[in-house]
Amino acid sequence: MYLLLKVKNKHLSYLILSVSSALLLTLAWQPFKLLPLVFLGFLPLFTLERKIRTEQANSRAWLFLYSWIAFLLWNIGSVWWIWNASEGGAIAAFIINSLPMVLPMMLFHARNQLNGKDNYWYFIACWISVELLQFTWDLAFPWLQVGNVFSYFPMAVQWYELTGVLGGSLWVLVVNVQIDQLLKNWSGLNPMVRKNLVLNKVFFYMLAPLFLSWYITNNNLLPTRAKVNMVLVQPNLDPYTEKFGGIGFQEQLRRMLQLAETQIDSHTQFVLLPETALQGGLQENKLEEEPLIQLAKSFLNANPQITLVSGMDSYKFYDKDEPKSLTARKVRNGDLFFDSYNSAFQLNSYDPIQVYHKSKLVPGVEKMPYPAIFGFIEKFAIDLGGTSGSLGSDPESKVFTGYQKIAIAPIICYESVFPEFTASYVRKGADVLCILTNDGWWGNTPGYKQHFDYARLRAIENRRAVARSANTGISGFIDQDGSVFQASEWWKETALKMDVPVYYGETFYTRYGNWLAFIFLFMAIADTLTLFMRPKFRM
Questions:
Q1: Structural domains of the chain, ranges and CATH numbers in brackets
Q2: CB–CB of 73/145 below 8 Å?
Q3: pLDDT at 376
Q4: % helix / strand / coil in the chain, to the nearest 5?
Q5: What number is the average pLDDT over the span 282-303?
Q6: DSSP assignment of 470-516, as one string?
Q7: What's residue 539's pLDDT?
């Protein structure tokens, strides 16, 4: 009986540590915004690893279970709003997105077993490498990159212009490690040493990054070279009852253009409409002839100084001998092939129509990740905005240019969560980051707030103003330091106008992207190879 109680108590302590980590990380995120807790979020996991390492013979299996519980609960606690779009898809997302987070813990544990001590830098290298993976693989979901937690307090991370969001992840992990080391050795230190260690660590690891942010904000922002008058529209069409069939597509566009007219004047240069503002499947082979494009042209004829940038639901037929993409579909009862797209276009009275097809597609919604393995996910497709199904895409970002001499980055919805991809627009000359999105699928939840705040980090990384047109909110204008110029209310039909600053120059991050991650990836690979070559290690 005593042994049984002892075993139960051990596993209860493991579960408490696991849940504690999940709770700390979740409370640090939007909407709770208890930011300091993120600097403690990994401490229970470090303690969990040590306890299991010393108390369990089958330590790897138990560590996998309890660390996965922590990351699964963190995913559920922070992005539970996916459930509003699809219950089955949300379950798949929670499981698939939490599993890669376990890998750094398992490798950390294996290294610690061999060396008999906590190899913290190896854990950090593995964690940053997994975050890099979340930018690149077919199941990419970088929503819970640890550095994203600062999105609602961007003044603390102005140095993202150097490191990108992964620099924030590194900061959080290093502080967690320093606190863990301090607590682990606390009992063996005399009071004076304890005091000096606490003061030194607090200053160096906590205050120094904040001071750097303050210094950059006051000394290193990019200069303004021009201003562009922009109007963005938030039509507030319910995606479940109005947008995709409840209201006619021409009527929807008329409403949006009428909203724009409440704000435009003779100085207005650009009007932005949200993702898939033009609905019903516009055929790109004859785009000029589409009724919705004709309606938009009528608006531009009355306002010839304006350039319209908008999202649209489009498709393209392939000629008989034309090379086809891997996503091309065959027309039923015919020989023709076509691709469907979630697109953006630029239209004015002087330049040809420019079209961009969303490149970063949502896994399980707009593309099938690794279809041979995950084909079963298709029936659980999650509607996170835009057109659903296996869509075609452009291989890389594209910048809209024209007679206005202002280059626009047409960033479509999910793409704004990818830092280096967003930076690629700026490397191609984008003057303003324009985000077209539809966040109404999630309802009045933290989802649309998190998505808006992530745009503030993209502004810092590239020192570009952001103009964000969302179907149901939040729409708004963001400055190069992540501060919000204007923001709409949730679920309100509105149009906003502003003279948006155009900044000159590029940041270090814009030029070199995720350079920090590749340093840690090299460290992780090198150390992992030595781990597997050690004769004592057996999987």
A1: 2-220+515-533 (no CATH), 224-506 (3.60.110.10)
A2: no
A3: 54
A4: 55, 15, 30
A5: 96
A6: ESSS--EEE-TTS-EEEEPPTT--EEEEEEEEEE-S--HHHHH-SHH
A7: 44
